[in-house]
């Protein structure tokens, strides 16, 4: 592993320091929150085939588990040969594991960062994360439909009218709590009161761009929720065009302010 201190590694250090003390529960919850937001390297049995993943199952002393790492370098401690993996937000991995009786081992090759999350904790956190997203009717986010990157500029142009109302936009695939998947356009950090206008502009832009075929969702989320949901890790960034700032008018000194050029009377 590298010596870099990721938010997940910092949260693990804080949990280690708090273990056995009154702050342990709070530190564990902070670690879980960092885990959900982090992009993790999930070990697979074969290279991903589109959206189909085949996580590698390990039989540990406490039962079956999946292994994930905060950084790609963690795989090097398992094998000298390249290993198949998928980079996914922690919340997505947890949602895939929920209810399957699996533990999640994080950075198990590094004693300072290793953590084994038991199945009941996996299920509890997956339910908590799903509940947090229930307000928007979304259970999780994953990569956008294939070929989306080739059409991004078309969607960006169609969203010109939305530019003053949001910081940026992301195209993702949203998974509903019942398992249905559909494209979604997420506006990050909308201006107060602009949600309705952004929803209309987003729906129209999606329809006119030809980027999606069929149903699609438009969501408006604060920047903190976008970060927590791991959208930047899986989504396609849609640049919102910005109008060029008007050129500043040339500054005209006040009459008489330049002693070398006294004012003239006509």
Tag the structure with descriptive keywords:
266 residues; alpha+beta; 2 domains; six-stranded mixed sheet; five-stranded mixed sheet; globular
Q: What does this protein structure show overall?
A:
It is a single chain. This protein has 266 residues and is an alpha+beta fold. It folds into 2 domains: 7-134, no CATH class; 140-238. Helix content is 30%, strand content 20%. It contains 8 helices and 11 strands. The chain has helices at residues 7-18, 24-37, 90-97, 119-133, 152-158, 195-209, 223-228, 231-234; strands at residues 39-43, 58-60, 63-69, 85-89, 103-106, 115-117, 140-142, 168-175, 181-188, 217-221, 236-238. The strands form 2 sheets. Strands 1, 2, 3, 4, 5 and 6 form a 6-stranded mixed β-sheet that branches. A hairpin with an 8-residue loop joins strand 5 and strand 6 (115-117). Helix 3 (90-97) crosses helix 4. The termini are far apart. The relative contact order is 0.12.
């Amino acid at each position: 592993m590298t010596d870099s201190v990721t938010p997940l590694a910092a949260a693990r250090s804080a949990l280690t320091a708090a273990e056995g003390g009154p702050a342990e529960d709070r530190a564990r919850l902070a670690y879980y929150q960092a885990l959900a937001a982090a992009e993790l390297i999930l070990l697979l049995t074969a290279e991903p085939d589109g959206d189909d993943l085949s996580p590698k199952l390990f039989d540990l002393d406490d039962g079956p588990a999946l292994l994930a790492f905060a950084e790609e370098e963690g795989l090097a401690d398992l094998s000298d040969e390249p290993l198949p993996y998928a980079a996914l937000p922690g919340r997505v991995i947890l949602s895939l594991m929920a209810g399957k009786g699996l533990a999640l081992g994080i950075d198990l090759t590094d004693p300072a960062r290793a953590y084994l999350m038991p199945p009941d904790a996996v299920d509890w956190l997956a339910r908590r994360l799903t509940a947090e997203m229930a307000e928007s009717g979304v259970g999780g986010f994953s990569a956008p439909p294939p070929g989306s990157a080739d059409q991004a500029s078309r969607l960006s142009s169609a969203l010109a009218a939305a530019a003053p109302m949001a910081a940026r936009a992301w195209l993702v695939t949203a998974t509903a709590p019942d398992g249905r998947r559909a494209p979604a356009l997420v506006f990050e950090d909308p201006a107060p009161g602009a949600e309705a206008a952004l929803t209309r502009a987003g729906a129209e832009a999606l329809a006119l761009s030809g980027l999606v075929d069929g149903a699609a969702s438009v969501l408006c989320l604060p920047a903190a929720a976008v970060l927590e949901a791991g959208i930047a890790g899986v989504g396609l960034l849609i640049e919102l065009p910005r109008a060029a700032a008007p050129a500043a008018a040339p500054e005209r000194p006040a009459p008489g302010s330049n002693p070398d050029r006294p004012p003239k009377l006509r």
